[in-house]
Amino acid sequence: MAAPKKGRRPTGAQGRPGRALAIILIAMVALTAGMFISKQTTPRLGIDLAGGTSITLKAKSEPGKESAINETNMNTAVGIIDRRVNGLGVSEAEVQTQGRDHIIVNIPKGTNEQQAREQVGTTAQLYFRPVIAFADGSPAAPEGTPSPSPSASGSGAPKAGDGKTSPSATPSSSATSQGRALSEALKAPAAPTPSPSASESKKADDTKAPSPSASAPAPTGDEAAAAALQAKFAALDCNDPAQRAAAGQGAKPEEPMIACGQRGDAWGKWVLGPAQVNGQDVKEAKGQIDPQRGQWIVTMQFTDKGADKFAKITGELATKQMPQNQFAIVLDGKVISDPSVSQALTGGNAEISGGFTQQSAQDLGNMLSYGALPLSFSEDSVTTVTAALGGEQLKAGLIAGAIGLALVVIYLLVYYRGLAFIAIVSLLVSAILTYTIMSLLGKGIGFALNLPAVCGAIVAIGITADSFIVYFERIRDEIREGRTLRPAVERAWPRARRTILVSDFVSFLAAAVLFIVTVGKVQGFAFTLGLTTLLDVVVVFLFTKPVMTLVARTKFFASGHPWSGLDPKRLGAKPPLRRSRRTGSAPAPVDAKEA
Amino acid sequence: MSKLGDLGAKLYRGEVGYDFVGKRFLWYGVSILITITAIVALAVQGLNMGIEFKGGAVFTTPKTTVSVAKATEAAEEASGHDAIVQELGTGGLRIQISGVDTDAATDVKKKLAADLKVGEADINADLVGPSWGEQIANKAWTGLGIFMVLVVIYLAIAFEWRMAVAALIALIHDLTITVGVYALVGFEVTPGTVIGLLTILGYSLYDTVVVFDGLKEGSKDITKQTRYTYSEIANRSINGTLVRSINTTVVALLPVAALLFIGGGFLGAGMLNDISLSLFVGLAAGAYSSIFIATPLVVDLKEREPAMKALKKRVLAKRAAAVAKGESPDEAYEAEDEPQVVAQGRPGRRR
After folding, report:
1. Which of A92, A452, A518, B212 sits CB 3.0–4.6 Å from A525 for a disulfide?
2. How far is A170 from chain B (nearest CA, A)?
3. Nearest to A506, CA basis, from B196, B194, B209, B217
4. B144-161: string of b/e by CB count within 10 Å (b at 16+)?
């Protein structure tokens, strides 16, 4: 680049440094104010610094299902996992996709890690259970008595041989009470509940449904369990999200359970028998339109084993009356569908029809074919970070950062003397901007300062200081040419600006590519690098340069005070060019303060 | 510092200077030697891949009185796998056990807590599947590829293709040296290392760009003068920007060094250490390559150009003529228009 011709005013707001400074000052005040108004005075700390559990799941590519790993399925999986972890009552758990086939689940400290992992990692918590009783969601409201038909039958027992006959409890019209039916039904599975509720009798009394017989039989283990379940069922309020989430949790497949589920717009509750078929027995299911009836149905295809089991249970259920001719499809302890059965379904194929929309049919199809999740996942890594260690790491990082900063400051002071103060204040401005923006981004885009990000911020001190060096060296070169400070500052700027922009662009490019391509921890690092590189440009343009212009007007710097870092003598300035032509090549350290 | 300032002034005026370009084959030789060493080390010793690439668990314990040797024994007994135990600055231990999967880790943690007499809840467990590090590495390769393509395009536009090619070679050179150092010394390669390595991309080029910018400026009107050949101008540019390069490198290295020695010293191995170690090695290599390799490479590429060949011929002819006339070569230029390029400094050095 040719030296600008004499007298030409270099570009840049030479005369108006105040405006640029005002802009950056306003920006700083606004950001700081925004930080306090939104009460985000510290950057949100990542899971590695604040502590917690981070689980990385990788979608498994299964033969024949390679195309299953797609955005839609990944998002469905995120939705399901999110419901699982947040259904635990865990607040602020983050579930997000990372890259093409990873899901990262970040669970803040204070969560039961084991439980969380079970929740997140399990893919096939899908069961087909026979319905024993149904009521709408509220706790034992009178109109909630579900079965219009008085007949009740205790079934769902695995030992039921063929589907034609009901093995045990005889349907009797006299046993009209739901409670009675329940008790009998529940006796059959002979599966003792490990922890009978202590408050069973009290709860049972609350039951408004007439159940004289519920307390009548001798309280054997089974009976107690049945009563407990019945009591729980009566008290269950599926309209309460907390109860809803807790209802089906922890139920063992081989035991009866209570569960909530959505029926149309309202919530319903069920008592369900032991699981007969599970998600893994389903080979494939999909939602499709039935061309004959013109409605959406879900077709299922079972595995050989699944087909046998399904034939058996449908055979049993077909003989019964509402609601016990239904089976419930239970996903993660929640009833997602409760189709009724009219005949034994053999041959491994079945279809569910009635009331589906395209969306609901396809969703159910998806859930059925992939178990609970549309994809199966493997645990890639589980990271538990205790807060103490995170704090330690952060502390070490901050100490290292402070020392690094101090070293840079010392170096700048020794080498650039007075000029260093401009650099240091610029670094400070940069730090304030970085801090406030990071704090605000915590809320804005969920940016979390993790350890690599801290590392990135420390490394960025160097990048930021580099731009000052480029500019200062340029100014000094101009002074060596014999110019006085004011023109030197202005003439050095366009050249320094070019270098700064080009090199910052390269840094930014690296950060951007890293951010887009990588996953997880690396992203935080790349983001910080990119952010600080951008801020470097902002600070150099709006702060360092204008301040330099102002400073050039002060006597201390303009006169080239020995401590200003701009002493022409020390810099080996020579007298202005043209007049020095014939003085030869020797340095001409004559007084060059004023030409 | 005034001495350094003097040096800066002298370098700037070209009174002193190192003949980087003239001695480039020496430095090419040095670099080729280092590169070969790096490749051999890589082939023979390979990289010490961290647990993230092999799969396993890392346990970090609070302060404990159990010795490292005892802890290693306990960890190996508890897990049945090899264990690496390091003491942390906090007095705690960092125990790496490869081959431990998610299920086994809980048991190992329990046993470790008992053996080391610390609370189970205080032990921090970091479990990694073998694919995790691989994933990061794969993404890193993709990122590296994309970045290289983009940056070559950018540099070719901002400067010219010769500089882009030279910068790319210098970049590969830096990465090779860094990887070579890892293979030679046997530092552990972790995702942190990969992050650091990727950051070198931007940094190594930052330095190179600063030098190239000076070169581009210095050689702008090169064909309008007959005083210097391209390689001479290039050498002057390197020397002129030397102080700037040294300063930016020192300033960039200081925080990284702080991270490496203080952050690392305080906590022992860990993410901070891994990132800063590879950054430190890469930065140092980057500073070296931008001065000794990148610019000389540009010169080699550039001097093949017919225009530059012609210029060299003219310059040499002119010098010969001046000598024949018995004039100092300097006098010969007086008749000419002052070339803007060299107007910044006096021709102190002559050939």
Report:
1. A452
2. 47
3. B209
4. bebbbeebbebbbebbbe
A-chain residues near B266 (CB < 8 A): 396, 399-400
How do A102-108 and A52-59 pair as beta strands?
A: antiparallel
Q: Does ipTM top 0.90?
A: no
Residues of chain A with confidence (pLDDT) below 70: 1-15, 46-48, 62-66, 83-94, 98-99, 108-125, 137-222, 245-246, 248-251, 264, 280, 332, 366-367, 369-374, 384-392, 443-446, 518-522, 572-595
CB < 8 Å to B61, chain A: none
Q: Select from B241, B215, B351 the least CA-distant residue to B296.
A: B215
| Portion 502-541 of A in contact with B at CB < 8 A | 502-503, 505-511, 513-514, 517-522, 525, 529
List the structure tokens of B328.
């100092």
CB contact under 8 A, A517 and B90: no
Structure tokens given for A335: 């009833």
pTM over 0.90: no
**CB proximity list for A293: less than 8 A, separation 6 or greater:** A353
Burial of A385 (0-12, 13-18, 19+ CB in 10 A): buried
- CB-based contact (8 Å) between A560 and chain B? no
Q: Residue window 42-81, chain B: list those with CB within 8 Å of chain A.
A: 60, 62
Between the two ends of chain A, the Cα-to-Cα distance in Å is: 24
Asked if the bond preceding A323 is cis, omega within 30° of 0, the reply is yes
> Across the beta sheet with A102-108, what order do the strands follow?
A94-98, A102-108, A52-59, A377-385, B124-128, B56-60, B93-98, B83-87
| Adjacent-strand bridge partners of A384 | A53
Distance CA B137, CA A16 (A): 49
Nearest CA in chain B to A381: B128
Tell whether B203 is within 8 A of chain A (Cβ).
yes
Q: For A248-285, how does the pLDDT look when each residue is reduced to its tens digit (9 = 90+)?
A: 666 677 788 888 887 767 788 888 888 888 776 777 77
Under DSSP, the state recorded for B228 is -
DSSP secondary structure letters along B129-174: -HHHHHHHHHHHHHHHHHHHHHHHHHHHHHS-HHHHHHHHHHHHHH
Burial label, A580 (beta-carbon count in 10 A; 0-12, 13-18, 19+):
middle
* CA angle A407–A409–A413, rounded 5-degree value: 120
Question: What is the Cα–Cα distance from A168 to A402, expressed in whole angstroms?
Answer: 78
Considering only CB atoms, B127 lies closest to which of A1, A381, A573, namely: A381
For residue A525, the SS3 value is helix
Q: Is the Cβ pair A404, B257 closer than 8 Å?
A: yes
Alpha-carbon torsion A408, A414, A415, A420, what sign? positive
Q: For residue B348, what is the nearest residue in chain A, using CA coordinates?
A: A585
**Pick from A368, A321, A365, A291: nearest CA to A123:** A368
Q: Which of A384, A399, A476, A569 to mutate to test the interface with B (most CBs of B within 10 A)?
A: A384
CA distance B196 to B276: 7
Tell me how far apart the terminal alpha carbons of chain B are, to the nearest angstrom: 30
Total residues belonging to chain B: 351
Helix axes A451-480, B191-218, angle to 10 degrees: 20
Q: Which of B10, B127, B247 sits opposite A415 (nearest CB)?
A: B247
Residues of A in contact with B257 (CB under 8 A): 404, 407
- Chain B residues within an 8 Å CB radius of A499: 209-210, 213-214
- For residue A191, give Cα distances in angstroms to A157, A179, A184, A253: 10, 18, 13, 11
Question: Residue A66: CB partners within 8 Å, gap ≥ 6?
Answer: none
Q: Is B61 helix (H, G, I), strand (E, B) or coil?
A: coil
Where does the pLDDT of residue B153 fall: very low under 50, low under 70, confident under 90, or very high at 90 and above?
very high
